Amino acid sequence: MAPISDGFEGSNRASGAFSALLTYSASGALSDGTNAIAAIKAMAKSSAFRNAAQGSADDEVRALVRDGKLAELPALDEAQYAGLSKSEQSIYGVVRTLQGLYDAMPKTIEQALSDRVKSVLDTYPESIARMQDQLSSVSPAEAELIKQNIVGYQQELEAALQGRMQIHATDSSMVTATEEFSASGGEFGWSGRGVTVHADIPALQRAYGTKNVLPGDSPYFGTYVITW
Question: For residues 159 and 228, is the Cβ–Cβ distance under 8 A?
Fold first, then answer.
């Protein structure tokens, strides 16, 4: 079924739930602000977005975003945003914020590892160089801390380069997570909170036989730990 411009088809049923909400693939971003506005106005007519219209995410909207059942909303310019009603602006802010949060989550445990490896390879060389440059301009005590950080960064970078980083699914005895996925904001912009991870680091270090453990969580597959 080909997607239509506003991300919906049909009208709401008497129950108040919208009907025939189209599922979009990862490439299903709306092409421009005009289509986005049409989608937002359709959402505003649905009871599924009643809390989003008040600036609050709820489980129903989270599930729609998490499962990819809403087309990706593009950025609106100032005039387009100003043309929305207050409730429509809230829906736009909540949905777009949640889409950003869920898009940042790995969809598989393999992706979680590959994302971390890529991040280390892309950013650590520059970070190490920057810390090394700081050594001559800080106190001896601060320099010692920076040197320790450099060693840690270098070890993780070497593990990433050599393919020695591994990922493991974990149980709740060592890693738990709070999956909030909330949105807040308004006239001056929107922000969101996604996942907060809680971990028993000593227990992980004992279980995997290394001091190098990085716990994480994804709403798509649960908690995990990366080791090297």
Answer: yes
